[in-house]
Amino acid sequence: xxxxxxxxxxxxxxxxxxxxxxxxxxxxxxxxxxxxxxxxxxxxxxxxxxxxxxxxxxxxxxxxxxx
Length: 67
Hints:
With 67 residues, the protein is mainly α. It has a single domain, classed as SP0561-like. It is built from five helices and no strands. α4 crosses α5. The protein starts with 8 loop residues before the first helix and ends with a helix. The mean pLDDT is 92.
C-alpha cells in the first residue's frame, strides 16, 4: 500500500493497523469514530495542525521497512 495525502485513514488502518501510533502522535485519539475513519490524511493533519507531507513520508517509510 502506498499512502498519499488523499488516502482515507480507515483504509490505512484496515490494511495496516500497526500505523495507528502515527495518528496518535498527532493527537488523533478517536481512530475508531466514523468521522475519523472517513477522513483523508490531509484532512486529519489540517484539523490537528500537522504537516501532511511529513506524516505521509513517515507512514510510507514505515510500511516499506515492513516488507
